[in-house]
Protein: Diacylglycerol kinase (ATP)
Organism: Flavobacterium fontis
Amino acid sequence: MEFQRDRTFFTGRLKSIRFAILGAYKLATTEHSVMVQLSIGVLITVAGFYFDISLTEWMLQTLAIGLVLAVESLNTAAEKIADFIHPEYHAKIGFIKDIAAGAVFFAAATAITIGCLIYLPKIVSFF
């Protein structure tokens, strides 16, 4: 089956959205790191309702959750491409995968910092 490009703007965008949703579903159902991060995102969202965080805090929290999920998704894509191109171990492929994992670390550290800035004062005042 040959790929046929959809040249109409509206249906082309709908197809793009469909592919994006399908990709997000594949990530959420096949990648354990994404499953863990989605679970943490849900727990933090529940915590936001419990602690009645402000609109600004909601925006920062949502941005942090989205940042981690987006960077993890790109990391997964980079790893899948690297494994496809060179299935056996190769030092340069390992280096590339480590760099992609480092980007996830930076995003996660940022999200943890935002979470601490939002929730630590609320937890301390709770006790």
